[in-house]
Amino acid sequence: MPQNSMRRNSLMEIEPVLLEVFALHRDPWYRVLTCLFPSCSQSSMDSPNLEFEYGDTDHLTAELSGTVPLNHHTLSVHLTVCTRGRRWIELTVEEQRAYVMRLLDALEVTDRDKRLKVARAILYLAQGVFDECDTEVDVLHWSRHNVFLLYDMGIFTALLELLSMEIDNSQACSSAVRKPAISLADSTELRVLLSIMYLMVETIRVQTEDDRPEWTAAREAFKAELGSPLYNGEPFALLLFTMVTKFCSMNAPHFPMKKVLLLLWKTILFTLGGFEELQEMKIRGRERHSLPPLPEDSIKVVRAMRAASPPASAMELIEQQQQQKRGRRSRRPLVKQDSLDTYNERDPFKNDDARDEEEDPEDTDSGIEGEVDPLDRDVIIQPPPPPPPLRPLAERVNFPKGLPWAPKVRERDIEHFLETSRNKFIGFTLGNDTDTLVGLPRPIHESVKTLKQHKYVSIAEVQIKREEELQQCPLTLGEEEVEETPTEMLYLGMLPNLSQYVLLLAAAPTSKAKTDSINILADVLPEEMPITVLQSMKLGIDVNRHKEIIVKAISALLLLLLKHLKLNHIYQFEIVSQHLVFANCIPLILKFFNQNIMSYISAKNSICVLDFPHCVVHEMPELTAESLEAGDNNQFCWRNLFSCINLLRILNKLTKWKHSRTMMLVVFKSAPILKRALKVKQAMMQLYVLKLLKIQTKYLGRQWRKSNMKTMSAIYQKVRHRLNDDWAYGNDIDARPWDFQAEECALRESIEKFNSRRYDKNKNGEFMPVDNCLQSVLGQRVDLPEDFHYSYEMWLEREVFSQPIQWEGLLQNP
């Protein structure tokens, strides 16, 4: 039986490769293989649109179940609430508060086992006293009620003190370092504490229609408490960042990093705000800087978009060609747009090694313009298939009447346009003057008028201009009033160790280092290893599920940090972006997408019957290997598609308006990788892929643009236009060669000046008054080290008496 299974798995692995080889060589066996394996011959264009709604998080049930491993449920190790034989849901609020107070007192005992027992009782309350509930709705209702009760009684503060004790527990850390294999038993206390805190943060963060007024007030108080430096003088998120640092430095390998990263993500999401709150903050920020309102709501525009059909692969095109050969011959038709875009696309089923070794024809710029590959020429001259019958009016495609985005123009674009026009028609320039149009022809006047109508000034440009003024006139403009927002306090706390935090987060999604396997196994591996095939399958699914959840948490966390820091101040965003670039974040994200992305998005690494709260209110069915392989019936995995979109958005933010980083995309051959991602028929993901393709189109060469006209049309249709951006032609004079070092060094210099002016305690030291009185200077007390008192005579002999002093030189003017 195992041999048959291995043979079946090996066939499943080689069938796409065989199909590709036979298809490219026009072998008759291709038709035989497509009959044997029809799944691989189906066109990717037949894949349905993914009904995916992008948001801050998934629905509450999915977010709560993400903290519980499938192989080991802390839910099953709960305590019966000792309420004198009465059920928890039958107690009055006063009786419940009294019981929670007794639990709070019991948390302060010195016995570790007793503390763990009480913490598990609190976890059982936070999970909704599920033994007394009949439905999942009841579990969620009582979980929400109990969480607000626990917060009101001060449980979170007590848990925070216990968490700090566990983090500083050097005995547990040294024991975990010496162990060859770490399991769930090494982090029991940490997992219970983090699970309670995660349930409290996530439950209180989510706002519902039936919330009581006191719950709304508690939510605002909890939000302010988490964002303010109340915990040892720093926000709560910095404590979690410290846990990440200790884990990745191998000083605490037993930390459950999945729970830490999820709690860190939800804490930042709660304290700083999600995407809708960001949009509102951006509107208020533009009003504060007296800027015109935004031309459109980007969230609504993206949600209204429809996915485009992806480019076909080589195998699909050859199959279509063979169908055309069987049809009637006719005159050579005009070249179709689809055929220009499809031949060079590689099949997504190839493995990563073959994909790395091959050179995609799309990436090579032919020396002879208009030269066509022989196979491609054969495709072009084939007669077209018979025209399809007309669809009814109700089924016809309704094309949009206009482009989805309003075009934008920067101030520097207008200056560059006028500088070019003046050099051409007048012979000299007027600097940054955009109002004087004397001597220019009438069409230039109309062009400048159109450009100014679509002029867009961002908050970042205002902040950069203000920073330049503060650097030039520090005494005249005085001190800058910095509003202490949660984002500002978080950045101030992260600044001393910012490079370390960002470096650890950047490499985590695709890390193949030693910490990657420890990261997964320390949070998944049970104390007793699986002994049956079914247990091994469950453990394998749980390991893959944990990897996906970690990628989801880190991608969402990085995106939130970048967006909030950019809105708070552009140079805070730039320093984090630069640390990400120096940590090889760009090639790591491209490496992540250099896989079968359709398989990743449709992966089914979950067992629905084991998810919380389904597993605690329903009888557990008998699990079999077939049921585990089948998985759920969902069209896609929400968290994986969410992670892909987040990583694409991070890549866009790192490369926008940065020519050196755009050239990194070209050097790492990202175009074929990104084109394969277009096979996912989801409008938002396609939009950010097309944005990344647009910024590097001018560097890819004329042959690439000619061979990818369908992709160029999709860029024109879906991506925002810059009126004088020649992205499709490659004749922009600003597309200079790769000068990575100079551009990044200039940016780093501006960032250091900003941090020194705004956060340096000894700022403006050269402008401080000087004390010229000898007695007051000598009378100042200077703190000296203890060993100096024992050796000061030797210091006097060495530094004073043995050194010749030229007294005449001291009396002379410098």
Can you tell me about this structure?
The chain is an all-alpha fold and 814 residues long. It has a domain at 60-272 and 483-619 and 629-655. Helix 27 (570-582) packs across helix 38 (740-759). The longest helix is centred in the C-terminal third of the chain and has 36 residues, at 533-568.
Short summary:
By secondary structure, the chain is an all-alpha fold. It has 41 helices and no strands. It is globular, with a radius of gyration of 32 Å.
Major sheet, described briefly?
none
How many H/I helical runs? Answer: 41
Structural class of the helices, strands and pairings?
mainly alpha
Percent range for β-strand residues = under 5%
The quaternary organization reads as single chain
Domain Far11/STRP C-terminal: 441-792
GO biological process, one term: cytoskeleton organization
Biased composition (Pro residues): 382-391
Biased composition (Basic and acidic residues): 343-353
Please give the structural blueprint:
Blueprint: H1 2-24, H2 29-36, H3 60-65, H4 93-106, H5 112-126, H6 136-152, H7 155-167, H8 170-178, H9 188-205, H10 213-227, H11 236-248, H12 257-272, H13 275-288, H14 298-304, H15 314-325, H16 337-342, H17 352-357, H18 374-380, H19 411-425, H20 442-453, H21 459-472, H22 474-477, H23 486-494, H24 498-506, H25 514-524, H26 533-568, H27 570-582, H28 585-593, H29 597-601, H30 614-617, H31 625-630, H32 638-655, H33 659-667, H34 670-677, H35 683-696, H36 702-707, H37 709-718, H38 740-759, H39 774-778, H40 786-801, H41 807-811
